[in-house]
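pls design
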């Protein structure tokens, strides 16, 4: 049969990327972030005086335009040395603003509203003071009874004894004493209640008036602050400079994330490049291996075709063909059918047949594949015949194992 198929060579030894060391990646990113943050802080500190002057200069300019009297207007200008070289920026007055009469009128109106009431307006009124003094005087009497209270207590006790048919005596005197005691307790309780009510009324009314006046003054003070030119200028003035400083802080907040992203991208790129090179080597080897297997298959097909023609019309049945060396003549070796099976091929003629054929000798096949050889009767003699299908299957199996 034909020669062996071209080989794809040994499997290449390729190097794939090692797993990323995330600890080293984090440390590298953190170091880069710290370095960048320090540089950004340094730049911000260096530029802060100019930013501060710029922001306050804007506030002064706006406040001057809103103010009640003309205010100086400042701008940032280049600062030069004696040789005329620019060495920085400085704040310089460039003019005066115009006073704003509307602001002056608004602030004057607020002050007038605040002067309408003072803390003296919270003092007790004459009625409140009179009630409080009356209650205080009455409370000072304590348990004492007036002449009317004394008579009422005596008459109440005597009337009670008379109703029971009893005259005057020690019992009647004792009853009068107890009656006066009861009247004294009642009068003291009434005086205490009156004094407490008067005190609560005075305290509550005075407290409410003081709270109202204080709240009114707070509202007025807040209104003055809101109307003050400098207060009104702070918001927009600092707002103009805020975006610049805010942008710097945003850059600093993104520094670590950017460093992590950069380090991760570099690590991933290196790993992907190494894996791509390894995959390319394996793909090239696989393509060569596929070409080798395809060439082997073509050789196998040619061999199978040749085997199929062995014996010509000398088939003995059941897919077997006569291939006994004893029935052949002019035998000449040609080569091997397969490097593993080691079967040689020959050119030969059957005895009594002038047609030259190519094939194998049954005796050789019997040594390697005894299951492909069968003894048959040919012209009254026992001869060997081969089954090409069995040989073809064995060759295909060996080629597959070789390719793997």
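designed seq:
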């Amino acid at each position: 049969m034909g020669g062996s198929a071209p080989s794809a060579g040994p499997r290449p030894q390729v190097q794939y990327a090692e797993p990323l060391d995330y600890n080293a990646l984090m440390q590298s990113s953190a170091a880069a972030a710290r370095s960048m943050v320090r540089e950004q802080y340094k730049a911000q500190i260096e530029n802060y005086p100019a930013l501060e002057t710029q922001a306050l200069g804007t506030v002064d300019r706006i406040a001057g335009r809103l103010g009640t009297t003309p205010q100086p207007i400042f701008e940032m200008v280049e600062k030069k040395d004696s040789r005329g070289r620019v060495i920085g920026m400085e704040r310089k007055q460039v003019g005066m603003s115009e006073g704003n009469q509307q602001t002056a009128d608004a602030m004057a109106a607020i002050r007038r509203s605040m002067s309408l009431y003072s803390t003296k307006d919270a003092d007790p009124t004459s009625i409140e003071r009179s009630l409080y003094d009356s209650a205080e005087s009455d409370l000072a009497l304590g348990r004492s009874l007036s002449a009317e209270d004394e008579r009422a207590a005596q008459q109440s006790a005597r009337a009670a004894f008379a109703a029971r048919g009893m005259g005057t005596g020690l019992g009647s005197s004792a009853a009068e004493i107890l009656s006066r005691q009861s009247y004294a307790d009642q009068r003291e309780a009434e005086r205490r209640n009156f004094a407490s009510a008067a005190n609560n009324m005075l305290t509550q009314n005075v407290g409410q008036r003081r709270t109202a006046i204080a709240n009114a003054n707070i509202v007025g003070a807040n209104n003055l602050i809101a109307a003050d030119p400098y207060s009104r200028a702070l918001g927009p003035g600092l707002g103009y400079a805020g975006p610049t400083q805010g942008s710097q802080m945003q850059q600093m907040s993104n520094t670590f994330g950017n460093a992590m992203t950069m380090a991760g991208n570099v690590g991933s790129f290196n790993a992907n490049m190494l894996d791509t090179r390894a995959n390319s080597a394996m793909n090239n080897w696989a393509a060569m291996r596929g070409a080798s297997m395809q060439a082997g298959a073509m050789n196998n097909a040619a061999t199978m075709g040749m085997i199929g023609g062995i014996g010509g019309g000398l088939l003995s049945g059941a897919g077997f063909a006569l291939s006994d060396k004893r029935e052949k003549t002019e035998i000449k070796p040609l080569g091997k059918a397969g490097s593993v099976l080691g079967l040689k091929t020959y050119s030969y003629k059957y005895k009594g047949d002038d047609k030259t054929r190519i094939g194998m000798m049954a005796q050789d096949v019997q040594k390697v594949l005894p299951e492909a050889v069968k003894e048959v009767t040919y012209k009254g003699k026992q001869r060997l015949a081969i089954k090409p299908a069995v040989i073809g299957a064995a060759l295909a199996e060996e080629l597959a194992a070789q390719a793997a």
